[in-house]
Design goal:
Elements lengths: L1 E2 L2 H10 L3 E5 L3 H14 L3 E6 L8 H14 L4 E8 L2 H9 L4 E4 L6 H18 L2 E6 L21 H11 L3 E4 L16 H11 L3 E3 L7 H9 L2 E6 L1 H16 L5 H23 L6
Parallel strand pairs: 1-4, 2-3, 2-9, 3-4, 4-5, 5-6, 6-7, 7-8, 8-9
Helix pairs in contact: 2-3, 2-10, 6-7, 9-10
Length: 281
């Protein structure tokens, strides 16, 4: 069933488990995520991010994700992640996405707050949810890499003000996490997660989940993280599945698709079980 993230994440926060968000930039990824969630009786979030649109335009993503979410037996939110412009966020909403992240985290604080507060008003009227980001989650490499990530960590007191004045449904936090592949084991600031959770009283979001240790996930969820973003692990699993298929003699794309989906399903199953959301639909 197609839902927004409000009740899903509030239930996760109260129940002490996490819900996975998986970017699904083709039908095979979408099948891997939604079919696995259905099999496990787990709520799930699927979608895409602005940085991924060159791979698959938003219109095409909506064409397969929204109907698949509607037909699912479990609650499925369709989320537009890291929306960098008002126009793209509005396009996602018009296409049937039930949640948007309006990422103004690199803007001055008051501008971030004002922009997100306006998006919240619009989404409330449309029955959609909004994720904001405070502090800034950088990348592990490339143009988005931060030289001193701790300079951009989320401040609990500022987070409380941000949540109170914007009304966001969930908040992405910077606590030592980063997007992409980790070259060295990250050191999450768990105390900061606890403090932000206590200060805001809303579900927190952990970006850059691929590559974290299992114990990191468990501890983060225990301390207030309710939504965990996964893409790199899923993407790499799809490639590994294709390579396995080629090694076993698959000669056509049609023959490779089951390998791709099965490999990605294994990752989704592992994450859903790890986050504790099995049977929580």
């Amino acid at each position: 069933m197609l839902v927004n993230m409000k009740e899903m994440l509030e239930s996760a926060r109260q129940g002490g488990y996490g819900v996975g968000f998986f970017n699904a930039v083709n039908v095979e990824m979408a099948r891997a995520v939604i079919e696995t969630a259905d099999a496990l009786g787990a709520p799930v979030i699927v979608g895409t991010a602005e940085i991924l649109l060159p791979c698959m335009p938003m219109e095409r993503v909506a064409e397969y994700l929204v109907p698949m979410a509607r037909r699912a037996k479990v609650p499925v939110a369709v989320h537009y992640d890291h929306g960098l412009t008002f126009e793209k966020c509005m396009q996602a909403l018009k296409l049937g996405f039930t949640s948007v992240m309006y990422d103004c985290s690199t803007a001055p604080y008051e501008e971030n707050l004002s922009n997100v507060a306006e998006m919240v008003k619009i989404c409330r009227a449309m029955g959609a949810t909004v994720e904001g980001e405070l502090g800034h989650v950088g990348d592990n490499e490339g143009a988005g890499r931060l030289e001193n990530p701790s300079d951009y960590y989320t401040d609990p007191a500022v987070a409380a003000d941000f949540v109170a004045r914007t009304g966001v449904d969930c908040l992405a936090v910077a606590v030592g996490n980063a997007h992409g592949d980790y070259k060295f084991p990250p050191k999450l600031d768990f105390g900061r997660i606890t403090d932000i959770s206590a200060a805001t009283g809303i579900p927190l979001v952990l970006h850059g989940g691929s590559g974290l240790a299992d114990d990191d996930f468990r501890e983060a969820v225990k301390r207030g993280v309710s939504k965990i973003n996964i893409f790199t692990d899923l993407d790499k699993a799809g490639r590994a599945g294709i390579e396995k298929g080629l090694g076993e003699g698959a000669a056509t794309l049609m023959q490779l698709i089951p390998y791709e989906i099965d490999a990605m399903k294994a990752v989704v199953r592992d994450k859903i079980e790890l986050f504790g959301s099995v049977g929580k639909a």
